[in-house]
Queue: 4 jobs
Job 1
Amino acid sequence: MTVSSGEAVEILRAAGEPTRLRILALLGREELSVLELCSILNQSQPRVSRHLKLLAEAGLIERFPDGAWVFYRLAAHGAGRFLADQLLALIDPADAAHRRDAEQLSRVETERSTEAAAYFARNAARWDEIRSLHVAEADVEAAIHKAVGAAPLGLLVDLGAGTGRMLTLLGGRASRSVGLDLSQQMLNIARVNVGEAGLPFCELRHGDIFATGLPGGCADLVTVHQVLHYLGDPAAAVGEAARLVAPGGRLLIVDFAPHKLEYLREQHQHRRLGFSDEEIVRWLDIGGLELESAAALPPASDAGLTVKIWTARRPAVAERSAA
């Protein structure tokens, strides 16, 4: 990878400032909003925004609006990303400034998790009702059945299992299923629902969608149903889900198309207001998966949300060898 000497100077000039280097280190951990960066750095929004503008112009980071919010992340590729990776690898983890920033990032993440946990605890009993406010659940489930097909499954893994709806919907065709969720209230309801559905080979675990602890390539089908929009790093969650998919297996993601219903951030703890096909496909590609289909289910009214169902597959070993 080569750039002109002028481009190299611009990239180095953008990265070669203490606050901007701190920003790069933070975005190396996860995508963050402007206000979150201001809180972590203890700097004003105009000042942080100026630093972000310079980093973006140099190709070191990417800016993407999400409703009324704006998020930033490291550039996906290019000379800027290459240089950012090299610089971040040189930073001593014990460096005082970067250690403080990491501690402040942990505080922001904890606050985020605490608010989300409280929300899920308050709404666990009526979760399926809340999720059906926008698109008829029966229509979504029919589309999921169509995407998955009728073939029997080995292991089904549901990440962010919630009340266990994906497990009860698809678990009957799996020889074994595992559901993970961080909310004990959700898991308790899921256990009741799975039991009532008569699924004896279904295991429910308290687990982290970013670090499942499951072996790579273990699952015929991995589902991530209405989870990504709550997460601080949805790309990492897709990466972990993709890691679990066996050769020839599939990943099913159900979430919202981009929308502008800002009240969902305040009232329902949504962090992201939907996802574009381009964004999902990029994450799938990084995880070694190929998009099979992307179905859209529009709402009954203009005030609702469009549900998207993305289905991706990991090529079988023979297919990869022939390619």
Note: The first strand starts at residue 32 and ends at 33.
Job 2
Amino acid sequence: MIQIYNTQTRKKEEFTPIQEGKVKMYACGLTVYDYAHIGHARQQVTYDVISRYFKYRGYDVTYVRNITDIDDKIIKRANEQGIPYTELTEKFIKAFHSDVQALGLQTPTHEPRATEHIAEIIELIEKLIQNGLAYQVDNDVFYSVRSFKGYGKLSGKNIEDLESGARVDVMEKKKDPLDFALWKSAKPDEPKWASPWGEGRPGWHIECSVMSMKYLGETFDIHGGGRDLIFPHHENELAQSEGATKKPFVKYWVHNGFLNIDAEKMSKSLGNFLTIRDILKQFHPEVIRYFILTTHYRSPLDYTDQNVTNAQASLERFYTTQERLNTFVSAGQTPDKAQDVSDKLATFKEEFLASMDDDFNTAKVIGQVFEWVRFWNKALDENTASVSNVKNYLEIMADIHSVFGIFSSDTNNFLAALKEKAISDNELSEQDIQKLIVERKEAKKNKNFKRADEIRDELLAKGIQLKDLPDGTTTWSAV
């Protein structure tokens, strides 16, 4: 039984799909006027994992992730650069796809663009006018917030307490300062489309109402996004959609928590704006996914270099252990003093399902995984591991990998990538490192421990850690 925290009801609820065996989910995508940042990465990884988990549990998932390709910020940026808005949006759509592909996101079922749905947007606005919830002033159309009796039920805001401010456009044309634009009249040097109210373009909120309902129906299961979208964007979406159809819009509203940089809100003015592509120059994509999933999706997440470096060290530990387990299974010999942990492994599988069923608690699953990492290292050191148990564990980890997009059975992919980066960053070669390893071995043989320690410390300062094995050989890993 999957439990989901519903923003609208402020409590966890048992997930019961509208249509048996099917999950229809919409998550807000990117407004494509700039490169995607680490906050976008958190949001996208969150809904990617939720979608994967429903699939793992046997549901037929229709996942829609939109692209906002017409918006005030897009127009402003294109005009500043003196290029058509389409040139700007195509550039950043391509960049976004590159970023999320690097992060291992699965392709959504549909990825609609706002500009491809102008006819449907006009049709929905006409319906709102007919229902007495929207009005035209000159070539603009506004939604009448006070005409929708349920306004505020998602965000919990009392309409009487709302005042016009930074988040609400103040225009003399409006009947009420809380009203918001459904259709904006054309201005010089702006993209425009023909409509019954004159040339213009859609407002932001109406775009998502149209795209979600077109691909998922007038009522669907899950609508996701960041906490910052609850008000006004999702509140306005709900008002528009239910005002037009007179049906419930979304059954479960899901919102991921904020991501801060060094405990501060990310912003360009503070100089702490981190794009996905810049971070991926520093860290392996799987490290970013792991870092995001170590915190429950509804909780705040603090990005610091140290936190992500710690995430990398944890993943390296996991893969080093996984490599040992793969080697152990390949040898195919179970020692006489091996202990049987079949029951504990069955509990591990149950714990994985229970944690994910409890509002997708990825952090708890990761904690469970590393309890097993500690167990297997001890069992391998003490020669008490069983081949059949290890195989069972690896099968469970394959299931977790299919949902999390981390903890792959291919250890070489991650460990080799770390080594390659360490070599590249320090302008070294594998031969250089092996030469120093040989020199260190000779130094130890000649009891020149000072030189042996110097070599070890020199390499460690370059992110290269040596490990002396019981058989007398030395290996290295990146740190």
Note: The chain has three domains: 3-270, 313-410, 426-478.
Job 3
Amino acid sequence: MRAMRFASLCSFVFALLFTLASTAEAAPRWVDRAQTLPKYVFEGNAGLGIGHSSFRNGNGSLNGPGLNLEGAFGITDSVEVGLRTGVRMGNEARALQADYYGRTLWTETYGTGISTAANPEARVRWSFYSGRVAEIGLDARLYLPFESGTRIGAMIGVPFTFHVADFLRIDTGAYVPLVFYDDAFFAITVPAYFWFQATERFFIGPMASLRYLDPGPGPGDSALLLGVGMGYQVASAVDLKWWFLMPNVNEGGGIRSFGGGFGVGFRIGE
């Protein structure tokens, strides 16, 4: 009940901001947007995701919804700060960490547990090189252990963005998350998103992430994430976003997991 009241309040706040954003000046097309927000521009994202896991040995399945909430602010034209959290609605959603599926168009989430409210993730991104075709940045994230049984963690990344011709943007890079459990969790991950601007307002593209995961005890393992995302710039500074995701296509143990999400993103101050 408390989680539902929290979700309702957050939904009201984001609806109010959505209304304000709809009167703002138009944001650039998706493929033309930079790695960081412009100076003094706020961007909010609210997403609803539904996760699913089934067990091939006939022991049933899990299904549950989760809400993702995040905001970011441009300190300068090349430095952006942000904060993210989530809400899981029900026991199955907690087990699935279903808020992850509401984090539309971003695949790298670590350092969370299975409580109703997800650990906050604070971040700062600096785009230190911005050319006509390529952008290179530094991305630092801190996981705050509010959830029971979790520990503090961090992730360092080097994002690359390529603007190809007038119709394609490629977001990739290398990220290293580290969570300080007694046996530390460590990973190396390389996401890649290929965004095609099909029309002035609509974009679509495949998403992937190649990962090496080391949970601490025992050997490490590789994982491949695959999915597809899309969006539509429905108003001057408002985007609608959808995605479908298979977080580990080579998942073992007789488990098959997938999920999808829908989100709203808005910008204020552009």
Note: The radius of gyration is 18 Å.
Job 4
Amino acid sequence: MHASDLNAAWLDAVLPRADPASRITDIETCRIGTGQVADSYQVRLRSEPSDILRPQSLVAKLTSDSPQSRAAGRSETNYLREVRFYQEVAPRVAARVPACHHAEIDTNGTEFVLLLEDLSPARPGNQLTGCSVEETELALRHAARFHAPFWGDRSLRGVDWLDISESYWARFEEMLPTWFAGFVERYAPRMDAADLEAAQHFVDRIGAYYRRLRACPFTVQHGDFRPDNVLFDIHDEPGTLAIVDWQTVILGPASVDVAYFVGGALDQETRRRHEDRLLQIYHAELRAQGVDYDSDRLAADYAVSCFANLVIGVAAAMLVERTARGDDLFTSMVTNAVRQAQDRHGFHELETTSEV
């Protein structure tokens, strides 16, 4: 479904109502967000008579109008995963996510629509400008709250849209060398040569990376947990946040979300000063939620998970429509991942795995 398909009659048919006489008579749409794979619009509704079940505004998330992004959303099952997340997983998470008014997707996994709670006024995170340490702390507490309910949940094994790490990782293991070659060709002039050399060292050992991730505890993983996918101060309430953009959700290691957010949210020096304490905050919240996870094991899993920003940055750069903001974002992701992994001894974890 695309923005041009949104109309009052369709919304009137799919949104619940308390008053049988209520009708949606008019809508206004405004594009929002900077999504690379799907398109999002704020939709203002006029209902006559007004109805307590019908919001005055909502957010419609729709299939991208860009052919390249649309193809990526289909091939990577991004659209299917986000719809299924809101249908099947969101009601069980303890973290704050938007309420879902309606979710559907066609059989080809391409045309979809999500009608979500409008959390405005809220302040969208921005990975290029980063987060404060306090915002990062809050995000990690919420990460623990969506990880904990599904920690080691065997019932999720075999769920066709979620338990896809093996096929997903196999494709990335096969394609990352090719994608990285294209990334270097495109971005080498704007990156530090030593960072690219270190990134190549990782790419050459991509198989060891995925072998090591298999040893981490699995749960529902956001998969793209970074500032751009968090809304702060929702409904203008300080100290709150909501996690959005669940199109990369997967059954996978919790530590990937943690390392990915910290690596993308903080500048290098701030990260180095606060990283150990941030891990302690995440670990304490997990324990408060009833999860038994050794802190030393978390540190080791986190170290190898630092490479996640590199993997996603390279893949996204080669798969979605190219933009100036995307160029800045993807090069920063690779740079930050390399330096974070070096600081946390992620390359040592990788080499140890390679020797097994």
Note: The chain has a mean pLDDT of 94.
